[in-house]
Amino acid sequence: MLIAVLGTGSVGRALAGRLDELGHTVTVGTRDPEATRTRTDDDGRATYAEWAGAHPHIGLERFAAAAAGAELVVNATGGDVSLDVLTLAGADNLAGKVLLDVANPLDHSHGFPPRLFVKDADSLAEMIQRAFPAARVVKSLNTMNADVMVRPAELPGPTSVFVSGDDAEAKQLVTGLLVAMGHTDVIDLGGLATARGAEMVLPLWISLRLHLGTNAFNFHVVR
Amino acid sequence: MLIAVLGTGSVGRALAGRLDELGHTVTVGTRDPEATRTRTDDDGRATYAEWAGAHPHIGLERFAAAAAGAELVVNATGGDVSLDVLTLAGADNLAGKVLLDVANPLDHSHGFPPRLFVKDADSLAEMIQRAFPAARVVKSLNTMNADVMVRPAELPGPTSVFVSGDDAEAKQLVTGLLVAMGHTDVIDLGGLATARGAEMVLPLWISLRLHLGTNAFNFHVVR
C-alpha cells in the first residue's frame, strides 16, 4: 500500500519505519522537507537525517505531495497542530482515503501534566472528520507509546488496541495493519464518537508513565 | 474494622457484602432507613430488604449515624449526589477518617452515553477533599463494575486497580482492603489529582461495556 505518514516526530518515525519494514511504500509528510533534512537539534533524539539514513526507502515530501500519492494517510502530528497540518495536506488529497488518526488533543498551555483541549462532548477525531468530511477517519493507537504501537508483541503479554470510526471498511483496513504490526486484540469500539473515550485515557496514561518510569506498557482489557 | 458504606445501590451492596464477608463490621448509610427497608421497586434488582435478609450482620443507618460510628467511610453513592450525601453524613463524622471514594462524576443530563460533570482540570475526588478537608480521601475502584471491584479474581487473568490520594497511610489502609478482596496489582498513581485520569476512563469503560456486552471485564496494565 502507498502510505503517507504526516509528522516527523517519534510517532511518525516509528509508524513509518514499521510500515516500511512490513513492505508498504511509505512517504513521510512534513512542512518543509529541506528544513527537516537539515535540522541538527532534535531534543536529544537522532536527527531526521540520521533516521532517514537508516530507512533509505522512505520518502520525504511536503504534506500535500505526500498525501496526494497515498492510499492511506496517517496523522502522526501533535494534536494541537493536526487540523492545520491536514489543511496543508489538502482536503482533495484526503478525499475518499482512509485517514488513520493517532494524535491526542494535548493542551500544554497549563504546564505539566498537559490537559486535553477537547474531551467528553467531542474529540479530535470528530473535529478532523467534520473538517474533512470526505476522508474516512479512523481513530486508533493513541492509547500507547510509539514503540508499543508498532511492536506490541515485545510487551510481556497480550494487550488491547482500540479502533473507532464511522466507516466499516476503513476500520477493517486499519485493523489489518494493526494485526500486521503484532496486535492480537483489536477492539472495535464503534462509531467515531467513541474516540472521545480513547482520547480521555491520556491523563491516566501520563500518571502511569510517571509511576512506572517507562513508556513500555499498555492496557489489556481482560474479560 | 468498623466500616460505613454510604449508598444502597449495586456498588454499595457489593462492597458492604464483601467487606462483611471479610470479617469487618459494616453499616450501610442511607437517607431514610425506613424508606430503604420498605422500598419494593428497585429497577429489577432484589429489593434492599431481600438483600439485607441475606446479609443479617450488616446494619442500616442514616448517613450521619453510619459515618459517626465508622473508622473507614466508603462513598458508594452516585457522583452527582456524593457531595450532598457527604454533607448529610457530616464533616465532623468524616474528620480524620479514611474516605474511600469509588464514585464517578456522571452527568446524565445529555442522555446516553453520560458525560462527566468534572474532568481534566479537577475531579470528583478533589471536590470531595476540598469540601471535607479533614477527611483523608482515597480514590479507587471507580474504573470497574461492582462485582469486579469485590471479586477481581473471577476474571480470567490478573487486572489492575488504581489508587490516588494525598495521604500515604490512608492509601496503605485502602490497599490492604483491595488486596483482601483479591486485587493483585494495586497501582498507586500518586496524589489525589491523579484521580482525574482514573475518572476520565469512564467513557472508554462505557464503550467497552456496550461492545463486549458484559460488565465482567477490567483493565490490566501490562508492563
Verbal overview:
The structure is a homodimer of 223-residue chains. Chain A is 38% helix and 22% strand. With 223 residues, chain A is α/β, with parallel strands linked by helices. Chain A has one domain: Rossmann fold (3-Layer(aba) Sandwich). Chain A has an eight-stranded mixed β-sheet, with helices on both faces. In chain A, strands 6-7 form a two-stranded antiparallel ribbon. In chain A, a hairpin with a 7-residue loop joins strand 6 (106-107) and strand 7 (115-116). The mean pLDDT of chain A is 97. The A-B interface holds A 110, 115-116, 119-121, 155-159, 162, 187-190, 194, 196-198, 200-208, 210-212, 214, 216-223 and B 110, 115-116, 119-121, 155-159, 162, 187-190, 194, 196-198, 200-208, 210-212, 214, 216-223. Strand 11 of chain A pairs antiparallel with strand 11 of chain B, so a sheet runs across the interface.
Shape of chain A: globular
Could you name the CATH topology of chain A?
Rossmann fold
User: Roughly what is the average pLDDT of chain A, rounded to an integer?
Assistant: 97
The fraction of residues assigned to DSSP E strands of chain A is 15-25%
Question: Largest beta sheet of chain A: what is the strand line-up?
Answer: 3-2-1-4-5-8-9-10
Number of spatially distinct domains of chain A: 1
Strand count, sense and closure of the main sheet of chain A? 8 strands, mixed
What is the first-to-last residue Cα distance of chain A? 34 Å
β-strand number of chain A:
11
- Secondary-structure element series of chain A: EHEHHEHEHHEEEHEHEHEHHE
Radius of gyration of chain A: 16 Å
Low-confidence stretches of chain A: none
Report the CATH superfamily of chain A.
Answer: NAD(P)-binding Rossmann-like Domain
* CATH class placement of chain A: Alpha Beta
* SS field, number of helical segments of chain A: 11
Fraction of residues in H or I helices of chain A: 25-40%
Oligomer: homodimer
Which chains have the largest interface?
A-B, 41 and 41 residues
